[in-house]
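Our consortium's second objective concerns turning raw sequence data into structural hypotheses that experimental partners can test. To show how far this objective has progressed, the report includes one record in full. It was chosen at random from the queue rather than selected for favorable results. The single chain below, 304 residues long, was entered without modification.
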Amino acid sequence: MNAVITTQGLCKQYGKVLRVKDLDLNVPEGAVYGFLGPNGAGKSTTLKMILGLARPTAGTITVFGQPVNTRNRLAILKQVGSLIESPSYYGHLTGAENLRIVQTLRGAPEADIARVLHIVRLENQQNKLVSQYSLGMKQRLGLANALLGSPRLLVLDEPTNGLDPAGIQEMRELIHSLPQQYGMTVLVSSHLLSEIDQMATMLGIIRQGELVFQGSLSALHEKSKRNIAVRTLNNPASARLLREKQIPYRHSGDYLLLPDLQDEQVAYCTALLAEQRVGLVRVEERQKSLEDIFLELTGKAMSL
């Protein structure tokens, strides 16, 4: 699959602080790519460099197969829509009037205004002053601005910030539908794993400016495979017995972790240990949640 965005060795330094370090992103065409990390991990800085709003300290950025530089930046950005941080608007104008300003600046067809209003479901509020919009409506208006001109790539920075649960669900469903319905590629950042899990097809996780995971959501789910945890009063003797019977295991604190076994295999192992009188005290099934995996990768507790 062709990559819409690639970065190689991307770095951004502010003073003596390296905010983004050797970042190698690969955003496939037609994907919703979730760019995930704790607050302050370098997500917004990365998106700003991709959009040409910040100059990289080192490394390269390629969008649509072309290197982003001062010569071709504007030509590339004509095919890109973006919503970085909070949306900008004129409160004394209506939603439609705000869109008309952006439509004129972008040179998009006037019919685009009705089209994007329909996509973000603001047709019935288009003649209302934006100062009277709810936060969710303002966020959707910002997304409508980004959709003007039918961009091939949409870059969204924390698009559900400040929304209530209903607004989050609506925005999530809308973003998830964009590639299939309109042929767009979406790069969306978030610090909420549960949110990205429900709308992204690809995932990149960043920690302190470094990429610690990149791949499909199914690959991340693979890391959450189940284990059978066994605790005995004599773990060294139990480990020797498992080795003799060629049963794989690994140590985890006071437990021996066995792979995900069928019920018959679990019954065999427990009977084997019980016969050797090693003091079998506990057998339990364990499975890491995606939140546990995120915590391991980022070293920080995540928002839920």
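The partners drew two points from this record. The radius of gyration is 25 Å. Residues 165-182 form the longest helix (18 residues). Both points have been shared with the crystallography group to help prioritize constructs.
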